[in-house]
Design a protein that fits this description.
mainly alpha; Farnesyl Diphosphate Synthase
């Protein structure tokens, strides 16, 4: 189990997918009797991360007759860290919040007295638990820590470094290509008010899938994210209500001849939307080109919800919290991303998977909820953009007449509930599990973008160091 965890931490699990899957299936069914909190917790997390059922009753062996965790565990920081991370794989109706609270309490009390690298691993987990971490970022940390671990194997570390550097060369080429495409688009459409964040958008795609075989998928997803970011900025910061209605109508009709109904400053943008979707279609094999129609439908749905937000703003309407959530989980862009990320994924993007993503149920809806809530909590701290409608936190405050601190606490509970839905779908949707895994990846990226109540996507200076390390600085071998 420790070897599997190490391989995944170091970012080379994609080379051993079959071996890891076979090993974990054997571990799931073999007799497992141990008093090690670390081993029980690690087994629980690894199995659940791979969609394999394991009961939370496994942790009962560490509880006393009153149902509380044994205090002896407080002398085992490594075990507590494993318990803490494992418990975040919980689903609905599982009483693992106590495990999280117990582990967090004692990890926080001891973290300043721990030795490296455990001290760093505890600090990162207390900030963002491992199951919600952007894994490629974790890999950067762990490659410098692994040589200090008890299980250190220099051959594995060398393989991880070589693999990282080889992939980095591919990623640099992709960034160069997508930046050239974006520079041309940005100059052509001449919407200077729109965010110029193409490398940050590529980072989002990279966090969903960094592997070599998903190069085309990364390019496709980044282009589609760029289009919706620009469309969002049009609705939010520039367009009048009448212009918003015309743009939505043109997107609904999806034809070059409709461009005449648009104001002059939107015509080139609209034509580039149509052209980009055609370019993406041409990137795919003939038998896969139908997948682009799913992204188109999701794009049109997203535009509808952007328009609804614009109407609320211009009409000065404050929707109920329920109304706001139903609309804003869609206009968060999360559900669109779940469809778009599948388009270039080959066999994983089956018709069943695309129908599931477009239907926006379960994990896809949960992704939208988390995207919206995290974004809105951040916006409450930093202030909405000029033309943003009232956000979900503000609607909650107005409807329930509570302080912002109370609203945020309650909305964080909703975030936790949505994460349980993501974990549940990973366990239950067998044939869709690879797609669910990528939806979880795109959701985990939100903890990177909004985890400190800072929108480092829109205000991207804080991302520069990370981007440099991921894409432009090779690992020393």
């Amino acid at each position: 189990m420790n070897l599997v965890d190490t391989i995944q931490h170091l970012g080379i699990g994609h080379h051993f997918e079959k071996e890891i899957a076979n090993t974990l299936r054997k571990i799931q069914h073999m007799e497992f009797n141990t008093s090690s909190l670390h081993e029980v917790s690690l087994r629980f997390r690894l199995l659940r991360e791979h969609g394999l059922w394991v009961s939370p009753d496994e942790f009962n062996r560490f509880m006393d007759t009153n149902g509380s965790f044994n205090m002896e565990m407080t002398n085992d920081p490594r075990g507590l860290l494993s318990l803490y991370n494992a418990a975040y794989m919980f689903i609905h109706d599982e009483a693992l919040e106590e495990a999280i609270s117990f582990a967090r309490l004692h990890l926080e009390s001891m973290r300043h007295n721990l030795k490296y690298p455990l001290s760093e691993q505890v600090n990162r987990a207390l900030h963002i638990p491992l199951p919600r971490t952007a894994r490629r970022v974790e890999t950067l940390h762990y490659m410098s820590e692994y040589k200090h671990e008890r299980e250190y194997n220099p051959i594995i570390l060398e393989l991880a470094k070589i693999d990282f550097n080889n992939l980095q060369q591919l990623h640099i080429k992709e960034i160069e290509a997508i930046s050239k495409w974006w520079k041309n688009l940005y100059a052509e459409v001449a919407l200077s008010f729109a965010r110029n964040r193409i490398v940050q958008l590529y980072l989002w795609s990279y966090a969903v899938y960094y592997e070599h075989e998903y190069s085309c998928a990364r390019i496709i997803l980044t282009k589609l994210l760029a289009l919706i970011t620009m469309m969002d900025d049009i609705y939010d910061t520039r367009a009048t209500l009448e212009e918003s209605q015309k743009l939505n109508e043109a997107i609904k009709r999806w034809d070059e001849s409709v461009v005449s109904i648009l104001p002059e400053y939107l015509k080139k943008f609209y034509l580039r939307i149509l052209r980009t979707f055609k370019e993406i279609q041409d990137m795919l094999a003939p038998n896969e080109q139908y997948k682009v129609s799913y992204a188109q439908k999701s794009f049109q749905t997203l535009s509808n919800y952007y328009l609804q937000g614009a109407e609320w703003f211009h009409c000065k309407k404050t929707p109920t919290f329920k109304e706001k959530v139903e609309a804003s989980l869609m206009d968060s862009g999360g559900p669109f991303s779940c469809v778009a990320l599948l388009v270039g994924m080959g066999d994983i993007a089956s018709k069943e998977a695309l129908d599931w993503a477009l239907g926006c149920t379960g994990a896809v809806r949960a992704c939208g909820e988390i995207t919206r809530y995290m974004n809105d909590i951040t916006a409450l701290k930093h202030g909405n953009r000029e033309q943003d409608a009232t956000n979900s936190v503000e609607c909650y405050i107005a409807e329930y007449n509570v302080a912002s601190e109370v609203a945020i606490v309650n909305i964080y509970r909703m975030v936790e509930d949505a994460w349980k839905t993501l974990n549940k779908d990973l366990l239950e949707l067998g044939s869709l599990r690879p797609a669910v895994r990528r939806v979880i990846n795109v959701t985990a990226t939100l903890t990177l973008m909004y985890g400190d109540k800072k929108d480092i996507f829109t205000f991207g200076d804080d991302l520069e160091s990370l981007i440099t390390r991921l894409f432009f600085n090779p690992i020393t071998i």
